[in-house]
Amino acid sequence: MLHTPHTSTGRPPAGRGRALGPRRYRAAALLASAVSLGLVAASAPAVPLGIGDRLFPHLGNPGYDVASYDLAFTYSGNNSEPLRAVTTIDARTTARLERINLDFAHGEVGSVEVDGRPAAFAGAGEDLVITPGKPLPKGERTRITVRHTSDPVSPKGREGGWVRTADGLVMANQADAAHLVFPCNDHPFDKARFTIRVTAPDGHIAVANGLAAGVERANGSATWTYRTRHPMATELAQVSIGRSAVLRRTGPHGLPLRDVVPAKHRAAAEPWAARTAGHISWMESKVGRYPFESYGLLMADAPLGFALETQTLSLFGAGLFTEPAYEQWYVESIMVHELAHQWFGDSVSPRTWSDLWLNEGHATWYEALYAEEKAGRSLRTRMRDAYAASDTWRAAGGPPAAPKVPAPGQKTGIFRQNVYEGGALVLYALRQEIGHPAFERLERAWVTRHRDGTASTADFVRLASEIAGRDLDGFLRAWLYGEKTPPMPGHPDWKPGTADPAATAVPAAE
Ligand SMILES: [Zn+2]
Prior knowledge:
This is Aminopeptidase N. Keywords: Hydrolase, Metal-binding, Metalloprotease, Protease, Zinc. It holds the Pfam family Peptidase_M1_N. GO terms for molecular function: alanyl aminopeptidase activity; metallopeptidase activity; zinc ion binding. Its EC number is 3.4.11.2. Helix content is 28%, strand content 25%. The protein folds into two domains: 2-19 and 347-504, Neutral Protease, domain 2; 26-279, Immunoglobulin-like, CATH 2.60.40. It has helices at residues 26-41, 266-273, 276-287, 319-322, 328-343, 356-375, 379-397, 421-434, 436-449, 457-468, 473-481, and strands at 2-3, 64-74, 83-93, 100-103, 109-114, 117-118, 120-124, 127-131, 141-150, 161-165, 168-172, 193-201, 205-208, 211-218, 221-227, 239-242, 244-250, 256-262, 297-300, 306-307, 314-317, 348-350, 453-455. The protein is of the alpha+beta class. The longest helix is centred in the C-terminal third of the chain and has 20 residues, at 356-375. The strands form eight sheets. Strands 6-5-9-3-2-12-15-14 form an eight-stranded mixed β-sheet, with no helix packed on it. Strands 4-8-7 form a three-stranded antiparallel β-sheet, with no helix packed on it. Strands 1-20 form a two-stranded antiparallel ribbon. The protein is globular, with a radius of gyration of 22 Å. It binds zinc ion. Residues 1-2, 337, 341, 360, 363 line the site of zinc ion.
């Protein structure tokens, strides 16, 4: 995700943040203990469970591993009305389960079947707790079918999930909102394949992640089917329904490119869409092959205030491309930010949400590197400014790899400057420390080794040490978990705490 301004200043947003003591690997340890607690709780009354993510304790559920989701939505043509939906989950149990918890919080459940038989269900917190006729043994395949509605009107004080646009709907599920749309194991730790089917009245076009697998027309409506070829985190699911135009091109080595834009903005969108192939080639020159089966821009007719790296189809507010005040380099650097996430965040997903800096630090890094190489915006100057603000960001949001739990209702949530520019600053420090060639090898090795998987901060530290041929644990620990920003290798003149606080205020994000 990237916050984008509503105003026409064309300036990238700066940040704010607050503090947390360093506790390395604490998240992973908590995760393990919460899983075993969860298994005990499965035989107790219906209660919401989680996998113990430090930042979102109730996200995800223990006891099973989802292999695939089949989501079927029926849209009425009115984006204030709940959609009818059927969610089918194929999973493998990793423990004996008397109850199955799914995350689901914003729709009515009509019925639940487990392996074809009706099952009892109840809501508990933000979980849908299912009780099958008999307990599920460990290590078995199971199919859970939930008939439900999916409400596109956001619950009060809660954002994310469906976003209503001028002509329909799009999704913005990061970090914890996929379960406002469909029942799921809502944590990037459990990635799965997706088949997404959308039925909408004639005049609308529906597009989702992955590749099209057919369209059927009947009785004044059409049903589109899309499939992902790679596993995907629930937070990266995307469904666009609108009066859209779909632009098609071919990218590097035959990669299908598909952009979804409001039909009325088609002409304005074309020149931007035409730049994507070049962005992909540039990213491939840095880190290797694009990891998925397709890519494209989804331009939503809505004042989003952010952009989001939904897998194979990144979401942007159309205003980013239609507002003439934005400078070209700025718009392109945001496009490259979301594209870079396809490697960093999507193909390689965070093991816990405390690993968010691995997503945002890398996306910001390539965003800044592109701006330097293509528009002469000095990376060194940008990092020097980030260094000056870094202590302030750490005090506000916590160190990059131990972000502070966001206050309820805080709009920016965990998406603060400590993980964006602050995360990129860690990568800059690492490149200063190990040199450009080792750093570039590390980046390529990271996205290769963990492709289609999940990985943690500890995995990154381990790989960096392996590639550099020396133990970087102490160096990176200080940069990732320190309350204060360590000295910058090669720049003894850089001083923290010299930023003008007014210059680092974050614009309102939606
Ligand atoms: Zn981002």
